[in-house]
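Question (not urgent): is this output format expected?
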Amino acid sequence: MKDDEDRRLDIAAFRHRLLSDALDAEEGGVRAALEEAARTVHRTSEGEEVRVGLSTLWRWLRQYRRGGLLYLRTAPRKDRGVVRAFDAGVLEHAFRLRREKPDRATQTIIDILVRQRVIARKDIARSTLDRQLAQAGLSRRALRTLGKEVFRRIETSTAFELVVGDFHHGPYVRVDRDDEARRALYGGFIDHFSRYVPEGRYYLHEDFAALRFGFRRLLATCGPPVTLFVDHGAAYQATRFHAACDALGIRLAQSKPYRAEARGLIERFNRTLKEQFESEVRGRETLPTLDELNAWLEAWFAERYHKDVHSETGEAPADRFARSFSPRPVPDLQTVDEYLRLREQRTVHKKWSTVEVQGLRFSVHPSLRGRRVQVLFDPFDLGYVLIAYDGRVVERALPQKAGVAPPVPDESPAPKQTTDYLALLRADYERRTRTELSALRLHPAPVAELDLPGFVALLERCRTAALTDFERAEASASWRRLRPIDPDAARTAFDRARRRFGEGLHLRLYLEALSDHLVRTRAKKGDKKP
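Got this back:
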């Protein structure tokens, strides 16, 4: 927020901008320039559009010629420092409410004033009252009622009892491709007791891969610390990092967000790193590469920081660490690698049975083709990856070799066919045929029976033509199947078929009509049988 003096200078600059053409004009063109400025709509620094009268512009020009830009400022308020929003009695009442209860909120004070009918709610603004309370030294922060917390100094008795980790932004480095400049980030660990830095280097990213690399070197060099204290940075939130600390017996502690007091040790070291090392790097004419920066950092640690006497401990960090350090057993690095592997999802290639990690393909068992799997890998060592499926590690996959065909799935023997579908169809057909034949033979044959020539004659009448040899054979087979045939029933069936379908149609249409008629007739007679 601008103060009163800044606002006055802004106004002077705006007025000077309106006079600029008149100030640059010759003696005869001053009036024309001022008249043009009076006709124009101008925009202030706050975005407001205004017009300025010609007489006002002449007055501003005289003021500028008399004393320059400062004479274009507005006069300071005569009532500056005096409360104008409400009278002094209301303000004194508000001060008294804050003094009787220092942690009373400003909004509560306003509510009390309104309820006691000291002032109307529309006539008092919280920002105005807050400003007056602060000027009177009665803000809650000034009275130490906000953020009031007691901090105690952490004390350790031996090295590696407490190790603090952190990332911070360092100098720029030159990346090989196209000489791109990128900001390097320092990531490291410092021992609280000795101020010794067992592991620290610069990276291009603040991520789990960088944390994994530094944490692995810390464990390989000195073993696991008793307690590891870090902040809530994205790299330290990785679930696998928390699981690794738990499996290695390391108590992981994290500072509360936005509490710099809890991280005084590492913040002070970062300041030393910036002042003694990074300032020298930034003073060089050319940007270093990341490898050069880490090489200089290693030399600075060995020759300067670890040898200088620390103002807090009174000893050199290297000497104090060597005197008090009792290493814990170093864990198996292969086990550490398993704990700290990165985890990403991949779909196994349906044709090649591979997964791809950082441009490298790994052969996976063919049974996982097309399935979604978890790939656990070390970004700095891609000799193999672990394949997890359904929540458990199922395979250690090796890189695919050029020229080697992908593995072929094991072909399980084809099951022996035990279901004969065609036999089922034949059985159902024979069962239905027997049912129809049994329906045709519900009653003994009558004395009068239609013979074969009469049967053929009726069919030729329907066909309106003589039957061929093939049709005579089919008619003879139907006559034998349907015997005994009642002549009246046969004539009735064929007459109905002729009326319904017409004459001259296919022989089988009339045979089916006869069969259906005989089945219905005989079934009805069977129902009447006692």
